[in-house]
Write a structure and sequence with these properties.
This protein is α/β, with parallel strands linked by helices and about 260 residues long. The chain contains 9 helices and 6 strands. The radius of gyration is 21 Å and the shape is elongated. It binds zinc ion (ZN).
């Protein structure tokens, strides 16, 4: 399948929206909207491009990106399309690499990064060294960060709905295990924050040891690749997440009809 076929199959109709400057790299990009979700930002080929200036060609090509998509799991690819707003194909390296290198005391060049608030992914030129499989892993890892952010928001709603549940119960057991048993008997799925509070499991990779964010994103990657043991707390977490989402969604829906509710 050609890159163009993959683009159409995975992202549907694409349209050139406009050009805009990206805050992190300070460069102007062509913005393409996609039917599937994320906008794709590609470096604009300037009218007077000079060989010593950044070129569209300095970035990971849309073609390499498309070829990596079939290497992702269906679930991760779907999550990337629904959870990520923008994917920027940057022809220059991550401006934050210097600070990161300084902090960790060795030269660090990022392959990709995400602004979790904006749900914006940058794919850096370092990823040009990656084959399709490696790029797919990078994209799955960044998607893991977006899923983590979604989980965080979910946890807030979950806690509210759970509080409402307990307010209708005549007795509230004092020990957490008994409370959880009552919740389970009422079909209430696991708390989306359980991965962090209850189990102290081994990080799946060296990079996962960096912090909680990387722990989560790396576990997500291993889970999507089928490399996470079923016994690992994160395996249960990712498996249950969809059920938790549905449980909360049932409750949130009527509230969205309030006219002043936003985002
Ligand atoms: Zn990461």
């Amino acid at each position: 399948m050609s890159a163009r076929d993959i683009l159409i199959q995975e992202f549907g109709k694409t349209d050139h929206l406009s050009m805009d400057k990206d805050a992190l790299t300070g460069l102007e990009y062509d913005i393409y909207t996609t039917e599937a979700g994320p906008n794709l930002l590609v470096k604009r080929k300037g009218e007077f491009d000079m060989p010593w200036m950044v070129q569209k060609e300095s970035a990971v090509s849309l073609k390499s990106f498309m070829k990596a998509l079939p290497e992702m799991s269906t679930e991760a690819l779907q999550a990337m399309k629904s959870e990520i707003n923008e994917i920027v194909f940057s022809p220059v390296g991550n401006p934050n690499d210097r600070a990161t290198s300084k902090r960790i005391g060795r030269i660090f060049t990022s392959a990709a990064s995400i602004d979790m608030k904006k749900r914006q992914v940058h794919i850096w030129p370092k990823s040009k060294e990656s084959d399709s499989k490696r790029l797919a892993q990078t994209l799955t890892h960044e998607t893991g960060h977006a899923v983590d952010d979604g989980r965080n928001r979910l946890a807030i709603l979950y806690t509210e709905k759970l509080r409402e549940f307990w307010s209708t119960q005549p007795n509230i057991p004092t020990d957490p295990a008994s409370r959880r048993a009552v919740e389970e008997a009422h079909g209430i799925p696991a708390h989306p924050n359980v991965w962090r509070t209850e189990d102290e499991e081994e990080p799946v990779s060296l990079y996962a040891r960096t912090n909680d964010f990387e722990y989560y994103a790396e576990a997500y990657l291993y889970y999507q690749e089928g490399r996470l043991s079923e016994k690992h707390a994160m395996f249960r977490h990712f498996r249950d997440l969809e059920r938790t989402r549905r449980w909360v969604a049932d409750w949130v829906a009527p509230r969205e009809e309030v006219p002043w509710a936003a985002d």
